[in-house]
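User: Hey, quick favor. My workstation is busy. Could you predict this chain's structure for me?
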Amino acid sequence: MVDRAVFATFFKDDELQRRINDRPVGVARFHLQRFGVKQFCVELNSFIKIVNIVSKLLTPPYFVTLTNEMAYCHMTFLKSDDEVVQAYLEFRTRVVGLIREIPESQASLSVPLCPDWEVSSLISHIVGVPEDILAGRMEGVTTDAWTQAQVDRHEGESLSQLADALLATAVEFDVLLPHIPSPINSQMMMDAVTHEHDLRHAVGRAGAQDSLAVNVALGWLLDMVEGKAPGGAQELVNSGVPHYELMRSLTGRRSVEQMKQFGLDGEQIKLLLQGTPLRVPMTAIEF
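Assistant: No problem, here it is.
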């Protein structure tokens, strides 16, 4: 918990969206609307980062307001910015190593949890996210068109070349990474580690289920749940279900029946994910 909370409300404003679409705060606003969360809290340092960006683009009144009432802040599950940074650095090292272990013959394997993609396509997306952030290509972020452009950009590259491309982002991205405000940074980590395990499943190389990245992702997902169903996140925490299984359930990687086997309310989780890019599969895919 922090001494001072920030209560921020993002209003629908097409002109505002157009003006800040390529800035980190614009990404936060888009993501939160798409996931059905219209209010969120951040630590004071993250608030300062956001205001510094917004103040250069808008005249008062700003669209954020402060409150000292911790009771109004449901964002209590996020990991610290330092932990998010460390999680991504570990993730990149781990994934580069994983890619180098995958034989080229598996590059064209279908990814069961992302059926429209082959292994090389999924890796292209993992590479494309930091590339697009660095290049400011954030229009349509998280949409199919945005991710397809990443796949198209790396079409024909070998797995070795894709591993090199991910490493090549490190010099610039590692400078930017600590300045990506919360909760955007945690959501980015959620997407990344989700696809790490989609990739592991596709090539039969399970591992890293207790990574810091999994816990960072789960923190963001729990806050999403709390924003939609107050009290629901703590119930999930108290369920005793392993963090990895909670993360996979809340990212649409577990069927309702699989979730029920862990004692989770699969139907409720399915409802919570409605209106988001995350979809609960009809039948079990990953075991």
